[in-house]
Amino acid sequence: MILAIIIGMSLVTMVPRLIPAFIVNKIQFPDWMNRWLNAIPYAALGALIFPKIMDVIPGKPWIGLFGGAVAVIISLLGVNVIFAVLGAIGAVYLLNTYEIFHFF
Fold it and tell me: Where are the transmembrane segments (predicted)?
């Protein structure tokens, strides 16, 4: 009985995820919808990343915002994403180190 429930729940979850994979190539979307659909990954990443940017150093949200700004600037320069991540980490580290030693 439990095995039947597990198989049933997996099918109910899997079918809605597989259907778009098979029909998306057969449908022609308008340009505005394609632009909107292309923005979804960026919106999802922003919703996942931004709250944690504010929490990098508890009680000091400006450090995380500075690191996020550095990452955005490096990304706008067209540099590889790993360098944007490393630049943000370095900026947060340097700013946090500077603040610790100067007791801000």
Answer: 6-24, 36-54, 66-95
pLDDT digits (tens, 9 = 90+) for 6-47: 999 999 999 888 888 888 778 888 999 889 988 888 888 888
pTM, entire model: 0.59
Angle, vertex CA 59, rays to CA 54 and CA 65, nearest 5: 30
Give dist(CA 97, CA 89) in Å, integer.
Answer: 12
Interval 40-70: pLDDT, tens? 888 888 888 888 888 888 888 888 899 999 9
3-state secondary structure string across the chain: CHHHHHHHHHHHHHHHHHHHHHHCCCCCCCHHHHHHHHHHHHHHHHHHHHHHHCCCCCCCHHHHHHHHHHHHHHHHCCCCHHHHHHHHHHHHHHHHHHHHHHCC
Domain positions in the chain: 1-43, 54-104
